[in-house]
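Hey team,

Filing this mostly as a record. A colleague (T.K.) asked me to run one chain through the structure pipeline before their review meeting, and I want the input and output archived in the tracker in case anyone asks later how it was produced. No errors, nothing strange. Just documentation.

Input sequence:
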Amino acid sequence: MPNTSKYPATPDGRYFVVAGRLWRSSNPALAPQLRQGLVDQLMDARRQVANAKRAGDAGGERHARAAVDAAKRALGERGPVWWTDGAPDYNRRMVANTPYAEWYAALPPHTGA
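Output structure:
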């Protein structure tokens, strides 16, 4: 069954694609409650970044961006990869320049916005 979501996930579930670029997915082994707590922290930190930017608070923005990074690392979206098979990380790479290129090229044109 073809993946027809707006942001298709790679067949191995490690990434999703936005505008032709791979973005690492959250670790699927995280317990649902832990994952939701980390997502809540991430969203709160992103709001803090926006608030600090609006206020012109450079120190607050740095602190908030560090909180975003910490939440993304805890989710497995940054830092060490969450898979254990030794496969390299293609996070933030153009999908056309990775081993996922053939899979992506075969998707219907309306996916992978």
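Quick notes for T.K.: The helical segments are 32-55, 58-75, 101-105. The chain has a mean pLDDT of 93.
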